[in-house]
Amino acid sequence: MTSTPTQGSTAAPALKKVLGRWDTLAIGVGAMIGFGWVVLTGDWITTAGPLGASLAMVVGGGIMAVVGLTYAELVAAMPRAGGEHNYLLRAMGARWSFAGSWAIVGGYITIVAFEAVALPKTALYLFPDLNKVHLWDIAGSEVYLTWALVGVLGGVAITAINIRGIKTAGVVQTFVVLFLFAIGAVLLFGSFTGGSTQTMEPFFNNGVAGFFGVMIIVPFMFVGFDVIPQSAEECDIEPRRIGKYVVIAVLIATAWYVMVILATSSGMGPAALATSDLATADAMGALFGSAMMAKVLIAGGIAGILTSWNSLLMGASRLLYAMAASGMLPAWFAKLHPRFHTPVNALLFIGGLSVLAPFFGSAMLGWLVDSGSPSIVIAYLLVGVAFVILRKREPMMERPLRIGGKGNFGKAIGITSVIFCAGLISLYLPGMPAAIGIQPWLLFGAWWAMGFAFLVRVPRGIEPGINAEDELLARLAMRKAAKAKAVFGQAPQIVPAENNVKESERA
């Protein structure tokens, strides 16, 4: 949000437009390429075979690219903090906007927590004697104080960087992504010089069940391109280019995952992969015949942790900020830092959750992956519906980047996105070949139960459209005044809350 109400002569702080082209692209790409490619690649290969897993990633990347096209048009048309929050509010109204925003925030937070657990797991590979002071066991996973403190320190550092400003976070992101790609180039070189197609056999494994077993991980591995829309209000580039970067980021991530799968399988066979905790690192060591090179790849894994952690903390905080500024969440989440102009309370809240995550042990990794994915796909499905609705109801809406031209092809892309997302959601359900377990469903249910407590506070009947947020804020102010009158006998003067921005005041 680029402007805020003023009180007296003192203007409230606003988000700054400071992200350049490379910062923006690095945020999207870095968000998607986290740590999963180091710790999960062996599982993908043993589940579907190297070509089966690669095919699943290509198909999944294609689906995400279609979803990304809908985001590309919408972010170019509405380049404001909060992404999904704005699109759904304009297309479907306040309660649907809350549902979609809550869904994607839940997905982001699970990945932030995932990275907080992944960091000490990676550090243990580099420092085998890290585990000191046993605390407890959770689901067969031993938790040590020194191990957990690595994740805590990471959480504090990433949160502090984001509080200091999105430009600082963006610069850090760009340099770490470049380092990550350099490690990837070394892995690819090792595959060409020391790899073998014989170790890749069998190329396919477990048939359709294996393919879908990898497909269910796709939303978790590709979430992050939508961080670009969350931070769009802070991008100092033209809206059309912001939209293009969304799709480009998806294509880059797809190529990365396929490269990692093929390179890893060329260095280690299925039997070795099945017993490896960090398959990609071990494969790097095998390709070069050097344990040191395995540790070099771990450095790339740490870079991936930091880029994903940084981006998704950034995206989740902007969504909480946007929801609070429109009255859907407590105004506490909408507070901006007086000096750095960042959503400080939202950052502290999510950063606090990441600090707690390592104390639940490494068993949480799989649960977090599975519990966040359904929420992510729900949000993507709703954005596709919003895309189609706006194409039909507001054909004259200004669209700097119009996907599919002026005909019905763009609408077909939106409908295809909805169908793809509905298909992905079905994969998680009980009885399906790739159904998720009870623990992830419990985490999923807990998140949505908490969200329902906020959802019922959002007034019904808010008409979707360009003035939806104005109407929502006015209804909430009237409700607050009515409650005050019932308690005190008269309604106090209503002053707009800091950071609540009317639609007409937005840039």
What does this structure look like?
- The chain has 20 helices and four strands.
- The protein is mainly α and 507 residues long.
- The chain starts with 5 loop residues before the first strand and ends in a 19-residue tail after the last helix.
- The model is unreliable at 1-12 and 494-507 (pLDDT under 50).
- It has helices at 21-32, 36-39, 41-48, 50-77, 84-92, 94-126, 145-163, 166-194, 207-215, 218-222, 227-230, 239-267, 270-274, 279-288, 291-325, 344-356, 364-393, 409-427, 438-455, 468-488, and strands at residues 6-7, 10-11, 134-138, 141-144.
Poorly predicted regions: 1-12, 494-507
Number of DSSP helical runs: 20
Coarse shape: globular
Helix/sheet category: mainly alpha
Roughly what fraction of the amino acids lie in strands?
Answer: under 5%
Task: Give the rounded overall mean pLDDT.
Answer: 81
Number of strands: 4
Q: Give the biggest beta sheet.
A: 2 strands, antiparallel
Helix content: 55-70%
Distance linking N and C termini? 8 Å
Q: Helix and strand string, N-terminal first?
A: EEHHHHHHEEHHHHHHHHHHHHHH
Strand order of the largest sheet: 1-2
Rg result? 23 Å
List the helices and strands and how they pair.
Elements: E1 6-7, E2 10-11, H1 21-32, H2 36-39, H3 41-48, H4 50-77, H5 84-92, H6 94-126, E3 134-138, E4 141-144, H7 145-163, H8 166-194, H9 207-215, H10 218-222, H11 227-230, H12 239-267, H13 270-274, H14 279-288, H15 291-325, H16 344-356, H17 364-393, H18 409-427, H19 438-455, H20 468-488
Antiparallel strand pairs: 1-2, 3-4
